[in-house]
Amino acid sequence: MNRILKTARLRAGAATALAGVALMQASLHAQEQAPQNEQDTVEAGETIIVTGSRIVRPELDVANPIVAVTAEQIEQTGRTNITDVLLRNPALSASTGSSLAGGADAGFGETGVNLLNLRNLGTDRTLVLVNGKRHVAGIANSAAVDINSIPQDLIDRVDVLTGGASAIYGADGVSGVVNFILKRNFEGLSVRGQSGISSKGDAANRYFSLTAGQNFSEDRGNIAFAYEYNKSDRLSPFKRSFSGDPARYGEILQNQDDLGDDPSVPDRILYRNLTWADSAPDGAVDIDLDGIPDFTGSGLPYDRGIPLIGGNARAVGGSNTPVAGYFGDLQPKTERHVFNMLTSYEFSSAIRFYAEGKYAATQAYSVGQPSFDFFTYLQPDNAYLVDRFGAGAAPDGAYVSRDNFDFGIRGETVKRKTMRFVAGFDGDLGSNLKYDISYIYGQTKVRNRQTANLIGDRYYAALDAVRDPTTGQIVCRSTLEYDGVIDPDNFGGPATTFSPGAGSACRPLNILGNGVASQEALDFVLADNLSRSKITQEVVTGSISGNLDSAFTFPGGGSFGFALGGEYRREKSSDTPDLLIQNGDFRDTAALSPSSGKFNVKEFFAEVNAPILSNMRFAELLSVGGAIRFSDYSTVGKTTTWKVDGIYAPIRDIRFRGSYSQAVRAPNIGELFQPATGTFDFVDDPCDFRRINDGTQYRQANCTTILSGLGLSPAEIAAFSPTTDPQATTSRRGTTGGNPDLTEETAKSWTAGVVLQPRFIPGLTLTFDWYDIKIKDAVNTPTATELAELCVDQPTVDNVFCENIFRDTGTGFVLGDGDDIQRRIGFNVRPQNVAAIRTAGADFSVRYAFTPAGNLGSFAVSLVGGYLDKKTEVPSIGADVDDDILESYNPRWRGTLDLVWKLKGFTANYSFNYFSKTRRYTTEQLAANPDLVDPKYVWYKELKQHDLRLAYDVNDRFQFYAGVNNLTDQTPDIGLLSYPISGVGRFVYAGFKVQTDRLF
């Protein structure tokens, strides 16, 4: 019987980049500082392979917009978590950084995992590459890469590309691609160390990296090794007043002065000093079975405080357990070691061998919330009940509700080991032809240990404690007598993990009081569990690229470039839960079955680039290009992706660019093959009379149809309110699984933009790009609440969603109460190809670098911004459009401003990270119910983060630096732990860096 995270409790355990490259990327790298002088530029005509193409070309000649973050910029943020760095990028601000990787925010087995979410279209729709090649996933049944496994100090730059990625790199990049470019041919030694701590004296972070490389054989070969260590301390919610102090922590809940819904009075207002109604750390005991506690478990009269009707099981004050601090860590404890080796050797211009090897070991630990009891029944002869309140005080038994902090808060330790090996050959074939053939093997192994979980049959056997009439000692009833059923009122099933009867291991458990349970009893009823998963990836790729210069060139000397090749990829995933979980033996965790799946795909791809005109009057460059990719999946069959693009630069100061593409995403292994398995989820019932106007125009009629069909009268339907029934506010038991009938998603996207580099203002670059992405047949896996909403928000109840939500005849409540002895389920959650998604907006940048007269040093200004114009979803065919604009993680405006001043050996950096306010409630809720909330709580506050860093170069080898992030100590909004900003607060750090040009 779980309660949801933000509104309820959950039971289920549910240095420096290469400066030459930098300037050539000026039109693309929206976050990059402009070069300081002419020596920093790349020689005219130099060509390289760029993200989004396999054709060697000048880097400015790429039509798709790329935003890059350089190694220098990464270092200047002071952050040692690369995902936290990339959260500053407007396109990636919905990614899972350190503040969402622990506590109740992390999914089962996902503590410490960092995932990228491009355009807020989902982590599985974001393709992550390393050096332009695929990387093994970090989570079983998923394609999402754990960014923690990528070494930060080995990164040369990170390219973020929107659109057109599938035709070049294959499936999954429907929103685009994030490509981590590692340093190549590194020579010398680089050592960096950093330590930081919050201004409150906690959440400490330690970082150390070492990179060493050496050329050999007259610079034909290179070998480099890198090691990186990072450790961050766990941050408890009780360490911050906004999350752990009941006087400061608040939530927006049903206005108790507006239960009748007066349209002139806000329905929801702010409440503080919140507690869990009728539940206490030492027990809330109801000895007359009227549903209202009479005493605490310690024997004192029970103060209920002020129960909030329709308040998601909250009360104000009283003997109850405070809500503040209940939801788990603000930041997990993480520790990672990453070892890398990179080598290459050029035998001749025709053949070069290259290889990469990586081993990353990460360990993360976080605690969530305690287990709890909700109306757990104690028999009249329960020995501890009699001892506490006296014989006959509870002639019919008693109900106990408590929060089991004294049992130990449930936690999760995840150990993740990632290995990746890349080997290949490339070289020149003559006649302007190059080849590249490579093999990739990647493997991720995960061990997930969860602690302090209650074993169902043991727990209820230990609770059913009586006095042995022979010895007078308190023992488990099942030790004296056992008829094949453990505690029929709470459990109602046979013992499966122990043997009842004489000599049983069962030890009686006392829950009437705080810390009164014996260690022997806790050892009997609690257990850790260990689950394992493994993901493997193999990729073989071969390609040929070149140009037709030997045959012809375009006017102005442009080369017709082409690339073609093939790829074979095979992926496997398996997940094996602990045997106790598989058997459903834990009280608070639904049974999970082992899962496994695999697929392979064979692909052929081709790409062309035709600079039709160049170096001509009114045609500095006129170029068109295209790419196509044919794929044959073992799961969804054949797919085709393609793109066309173009560039027109009438003069070198201005460049127009655009692209149009089709991308696909094949369903991942979990979406296809995960077996039907149990789960718990909270259902905020859309048919509650307080929510009936929060949906589409169809909701009220559909709810009436459903509830009347279950036997409710019109009066009962009008007053239907699961939120006021304690038993209906608990989470529901259901099932979840894959769908082997899924097909691929298809996305159409276009981009159009302009780059300005006016010669009359040296050092100034401006970019503006519009993007529009439409996804059809999108895989939608709703939560239980979303399933219930989708059921009644369609034109009729004859839909796939209503077929998978189950209600009780008579009450109309969703089935699946955790204490239901029949163990009926309330919902089936399955992925379906039913959604359509669209997002559109603009990326823009302004960069200006200049050196004023007067020996004042050099200055660089960089502004990277994003504007979100559309973010909509149609959850099923024929459904109304769900407008997500201005909702969480979908602000209208986002941006980062960086100012850099360099004077001799001194460097000062100021950074401002911003996104505009977002709505606390959905667009549909606010449109349907104008008085939903007090106007001052309609919006979540803006993100306004100020960072400062100072560095001093002692000489060309040694640098010391220090900085502060979140200078103003901004905190999350009311009732939240990590939005719009991390709960860590102000963070100070200091470090050093040592560099040499040669190792020996």
Write the layout of secondary structure elements.
Blueprint lengths: L18 H6 L41 E5 H6 L5 H5 L40 E4 L2 E2 L20 E7 L4 H4 L7 E6 L5 E11 L6 E12 L4 E12 L8 H4 L5 E5 L13 E5 L1 E3 L7 E3 L8 E2 L9 E2 L6 E3 L16 E16 L2 E17 L4 E7 L4 H7 L8 E6 L7 E20 L2 E22 L1 H8 L1 E3 L6 E3 H4 L38 H7 E22 L13 E16 L2 H4 L12 E22 L2 E15 L3 E15 L2 E12 L3 H5 L3 E5 L17 H11 L4 H5 L13 E5 L8 E12 L7 E17 L3 H9 L35 E2 L2 E19 L7 E17 L7 E2 L9 E11 L2 E10 L2 E2 L3 H6 L10 E2 L2 E11 L4 E8 L21 E10 L4
Parallel strand pairs: 2-5, 31-34
Antiparallel strand pairs: 1-4, 2-3, 4-5, 6-7, 6-44, 7-8, 8-16, 9-10, 11-15, 12-13, 12-19, 14-15, 16-17, 17-20, 18-19, 20-21, 21-24, 22-23, 24-25, 25-26, 26-27, 27-28, 28-29, 29-32, 30-31, 32-33, 33-35, 35-36, 36-37, 36-38, 38-39, 39-42, 40-41, 42-43, 43-44
Strand content: 35-45%
Major sheet characteristics = 22 strands, antiparallel, barrel
Tell me the radius of gyration.
Answer: 31 Å
What proportion of the residues is helical, as a percent range? Answer: under 10%
Give the strand tally: 44
Shape category: globular
User: Counting H and I runs of at least 4 residues, what is the number of helices?
Assistant: 15
Query: Poorly predicted ranges (pLDDT <50, ≥5 residues)?
Result: 1-46
> Terminal Cα separation, in Å?
64 Å
- Sheet/helix structural class: mainly beta
Short description:
The protein has 1000 residues and is mainly β.
Fold and architecture overview:
This protein has 1000 residues and is mainly β. It has 15 helices and 44 strands. The strands form 8 sheets. The chain has a 22-stranded antiparallel barrel. A 5-stranded mixed β-sheet has the order 1-4-5-2-3. The protein has a 4-stranded antiparallel β-sheet with strand order 13-12-19-18, with no helix packed on it. Strand 38 and strand 39 form a beta hairpin. The longest helix is centred in the C-terminal third of the chain and has 11 residues, at 699-709. It is globular and about 100 Å long.
